[in-house]
Structure formats: C-alpha cells, structure tokens
Design a protein that fits this description.
8 helices, homodimer, alpha/beta, seven-stranded parallel beta sheet, globular, about 20% strand, Rossmann fold
Chain lengths: ~220, ~220
Amino acid sequence: MEIKVMQKILNENDQIAQQNRKELEKQGIVLINLMSSPGSGKTSLIENTVKSLDHKISVIEGDIQTTLDAERIAKLGIETYQINTGPFGGDCHLEAAWIKNALGEMGTEETDLIFVENIGNLVCPAEFDIGAHHNVLVLSVTEGEDKPLKYPLAFRNSSVCLISKIDLLPYLDIDMDKIKSNISKVNPQANIIEISNKTGEGLENWYDFLISQIKK
Amino acid sequence: MEIKVMQKILNENDQIAQQNRKELEKQGIVLINLMSSPGSGKTSLIENTVKSLDHKISVIEGDIQTTLDAERIAKLGIETYQINTGPFGGDCHLEAAWIKNALGEMGTEETDLIFVENIGNLVCPAEFDIGAHHNVLVLSVTEGEDKPLKYPLAFRNSSVCLISKIDLLPYLDIDMDKIKSNISKVNPQANIIEISNKTGEGLENWYDFLISQIKK
C-alpha cells in the first residue's frame, strides 16, 4: 500500500538558501547570519571577532542604505561586501539570492568563516532563510526582558542568542534571569552567551562556539 | 489650452489614513504615532505622559504578538486597544485600516489625545501612513549615532525625534551632537527633544509639545 508523504515544497528563496548552504559546505566555509535590532552591537562584535580569531573571515553587510558598517569592517583589512536594499523605504531583510550573488562576486576559496550582518530589525530578517549554518541573534540588555516574547520568530530561528552590553547592567533596571528565561520559553535549545563588546567580557565563549563550527 | 496636472493617486492605505486624520480632526482629537526600535522606551514614555498630563488619553498598542505593553498601559486605567498583527512572522507595521477599525471600536468621544505605539522597528512602520497628525520617532542613545543615516525614512517622516535614555550617557561612548546632526541631515525640520523616562529629565519639553497640539 502506498504511503503518501506530505513534503514541504520549498519556495524559491528557500531553494536558493539550500544551494548556498551546500555550496559553502563543499568549500568548508561556515556562514553565520547575525540578526538584531538597530544598535545592538553587531558590527562591534564582528570587529572584535576578526581581531581575535586566527581564521580568514569575510563579511557581507546588509543595510537599507549607507556603507558605514562596511567601511568600519574594511578598515580591518578583510573582504567586505555591501548589499544596500534600496533608497528610502528599501527592503527590511536580506534574501538568499542576494547572498548567492555576493558570494559569487567575493571569491571565497580561502575563507573559513563568513558573517552576514543582516538589516537591523527583529521582524523581517527572521522570515528569510539566506543559507546560513547558524542564525545568531544579538539582544542588548538595554532593549528589555520582554523582547523574546514579542519577536519570537527571530529567537526561535536562532541557534545562538548573544546578550550584549552587559557592562551596562549596573545602570539598568533589568533582570538578566528574566531575559534568559524568556529566550528559553520561545527557544529551549538556544545557546545563550552573555557578552560585552566594550569590556570583552564573555567574548571567549562566543569565540569557542565559532571555533567549534569552523571546518578548516 | 488645457493644463495637465499630475496628481499623486493615493493608494488604499493612504486614502484610509486621510479619512482617519479628518475624522479625528472633526472630533478635536490628536493622533500621535510612536515609532522606534524595540526597547527604546515607547511604553514608558506613554506611562509617564498619561500620569503627567491632565487630558483624556487613549492608546492603541501594535505588536506582532503578546499583550504585554497593553497590560502595562491598561493598569493606568485608560482605554487601551491591542492590535496583534499575527502569530509567528506577522506583519512588521500597522496599516490605516486597522487603526480605523480600532478607533471605531474604542469610542473616542471624550478623548483628547490618542497614542499609537507602532511595532518596534525602524523600517516598515515608516512606510505606512496610519492617519496620525504627528509621527514621533524615539531613538535611544544606546542605539548609536548612525541610525538616522541608516534608517532615514523613519526620521524623515517624523516631525518630532525624541532621544531617549539620556541618563545612560555617562556610561556610553556616544556623541550627542553627532546624533542630533545626523537627524538634522535627513530631516532639517525635526523637533529634537532629549529625554529620560527614568529620571524624567527633558519630559517637560515633550509635554509642552503635546499640550501645544491638543485641541480641547
């Protein structure tokens, strides 16, 4: 007797995302998709990571407009590709096809790790698979404890949640345990790491995670 | 000789937004649309304002999910209407039709001022006119100086820009003059007000603005 199996039919974006992931795996490259609200410290995190890890890292910067973050990263002497999603009112997320195009133009042969700094918002980027091996969500302590409950998709789709700006904790009425328990409510598997890009506290745990993922 | 005039043809959302604005004007009600990144302090701002102003205020809360903010506001004993844009992956903005519907259900006869707390992101809400008399953008000092340049539409469409969390300035490497000059670059007309919801600093200037707008 025939068993009917319902399969998820991938839409075009998901198909290209799968291709990106597989193509990078063939080359032994890890793709990390960084998502957050504006100003949580994604660019500072990349700067610290590039300075600290002894691996070849490239960066794809997603912004609606400006090349401000790409200019910061390029100063580190690493390959940086800017995707601008358009003039005023451009797209609020990156799509797999744009990443595919960027990867093709970058030349990735000797790269170990590629960061995508997605557009700064907690809603739209989480809806589009770009082909990353890990989505990493950065939540700064200044944003409040309730954000995982209010923007669950972004937290649910991320294997790592970095809680940033912990150096500001003494000056805030924020309960770190509540942030963590809210993350765990929407994503019990999330690997939660507390960091400060300013003092460097906790970054070793982030680097350990990355090193465990790098194939080369 | 006939003079041809090209007119902007309003799309459906813009038409309903116009209706909302006119209908509220007839009733002498001011509608303020609050936009920001997640965690900039919109809800705290509403709480402080409701406690300080001697006017009848109502609130429409926009969230993808949860009623956390609405519950905070309802504790103040004022009328609160929650719009949830859907379960995981819901809309990243509010639209004029939903505001029209909310206004119809709320009963606004005795209201002086209505706040809409839009969904927390700097991209999509700015693309949809909801019929507000003023868009007000809240940017917290922790988000960095470059945000007006990276998300210009939201700043350009706002007549007032509140710079929040100024109590944290001593603990941040942030240049307030640069935040302000970047706001002025994308919106030279913006009324910029520095505030702290925690200490109350600067809120008088915000209240003065609101009182100057209230018709009743």
